[in-house]
Amino acid sequence: MHLVQVEQLDKGILAILRIQSSQEKMFEKQDLMLDKQDQMIEKQDLMIEKQEQMIDTQRQTNKEIQTLRYDLKTEMNERFNKIEHELELVKDALHKHGIIA
């Protein structure tokens, strides 16, 4: 009876050792997977940082474009007003000399 029990315990111990070995392999794979996830998160953080920089650059570019448009519009309006004024002076001079009615 004791021999049968010892044989059964021996089988049980081998099974437990195989389970332990399988668990150790599984833990190694999980560690590898966690390392990969950490690397992926680092890359995502870098990508987010780059995107934020790009958004900042786009905002600055948009602001510069708006400022340029405002400046250009102001200058063009001043030039057109000057041209209109000069045309009025020319028309008045032509009218005074009887060239146009």
Kindly list the characteristics that best describe this protein:
101 residues, mainly alpha, 1 helix
Describe what you observe in this structure.
By secondary structure, this protein is an all-alpha fold. The chain is 94% helix and 0% strand. It contains one helix and no strands. It has one helix at 2-96. The longest helix has 95 residues, at 2-96. It is rod-shaped, with a radius of gyration of 43 Å. The chain starts with a helix and ends in a 5-residue tail after the last helix.
Largest sheet: none
Mean pLDDT level: 93
Q: Helix count, per DSSP?
A: 1
Model regions low in confidence, pLDDT < 50 over at least 5 residues: none
Radius of gyration (CA) equals 43 Å
Quaternary form: single chain
How do you describe this structure in short?
The protein has one helix and no strands. It has one helix at 2-96.
Blueprint of the fold:
Blueprint: H1 2-96
